[in-house]
Design goal:
The structure holds 2 protein chains of 2 kinds.
Chain A: E1 4-7, E2 10-13, E3 19-25, E4 33-38, E5 45-49, E6 53-54, E7 62-67, E8 70-75, E9 85-90, E10 96-97, E11 101-105
Parallel strand pairs in A: 2-11
Antiparallel strand pairs in A: 1-3, 3-8, 4-5, 4-9, 5-6, 7-8, 9-10, 9-11
Chain B: E1 3-7, E2 11-12, E3 18-25, E4 33-39, E5 46-51, E6 57-59, E7 67-72, E8 77-82, E9 91-98, E10 104-107, E11 111-115
Parallel strand pairs in B: 2-11
Antiparallel strand pairs in B: 1-3, 3-8, 4-5, 4-9, 5-6, 7-8, 9-10, 9-11
The chains are: A mainly beta, B mainly beta.
């Protein structure tokens, strides 16, 4: 089974900041990683697929990069509506989620 | 439009079997896969099981011995059964759609399951 190590568990940011979350897979996942946003009481919402492709409707301040085992997800110019939890998901071999990152306002 | 809706008992006693149903609309189960994902209160997401468009299935290896996923294409439903429930199985259970072995593009709203006597 592929393990996904996501960090940090929590982030505190001011409006307008840039924040970055990382996920490291236990093996090469061939860029098959997606990123999700989840707000309390809601289902996750997909933001990025295949490392860096923004899903329709995802604002351009969101971005993703990486290859092999190491991937990152960034939000530039954090807005109040971005306050949520974020999860990575590998789908190279079945599915594994990262543990999540909770983004809070400083 | 694409919709998925979970349904289930809400409260289940320890050691009993949980049965959940995901009713879908706006797409065919013979063209898309459907997975179950759960989230204990205040914790992260965990993929549980998938049934693919061809009808084959896959399970989370840690839970495999307790799980069964199936579908009724005539009713557009995906069924999940989990036996030997424990309190740590208390969670929100979501069903989600994937195109092939792809990421999840649509999710249901989730159904809360509490395991308690």
């Amino acid at each position: 089974d592929i393990q996904m190590t996501q960090s940090p568990p929590s982030l505190s940011a001011s409006l307008g900041d840039k924040v970055t979350i990382t996920c490291q897979a236990s093996q090469n996942i061939n860029k098959y990683i997606a990123w999700y946003q989840q707000k309390p009481g809601k289902a996750p919402r997909q933001l990025i697929r295949y490392t860096s492709t923004l899903v329709s409707g995802t604002p351009s301040r969101f971005s993703g990069s990486g290859s092999g085992r190491d991937y990152s997800f960034s939000i530039s110019n954090v807005e109040s509506e971005d306050i949520a939890s974020y999860y990575c998901l590998q789908y190279d071999n079945l599915y594994t989620f990262g543990a999540g990152t909770k983004l809070e306002l400083k | 439009q694409v919709q998925l809706k979970e349904s289930g008992p809400g409260l289940v006693q320890p050691s009993r079997t949980l049965s959940l149903t995901c009713t879908v609309s706006g797409f065919s189960l013979t063209s898309y896969g459907v997975s179950w994902v759960r989230q204990p209160p205040g914790k992260g997401l965990e993929w549980i099981a998938a049934i693919w468009s061809g009808g084959s299935t896959d399970y989370n290896s840690a839970l495999k011995s307790r799980l069964s996923i199936s579908r009724d294409t005539s009713k557009s439903q995906v069924l999940l059964k989990m036996n030997s429930l424990q309190t740590e199985d208390t969670a929100m259970y979501f069903c989600a759609r994937s195109y092939g072995y792809n990421f999840f593009d649509y999710w249901g709203q989730g159904v809360m399951v509490t395991v308690s006597s």
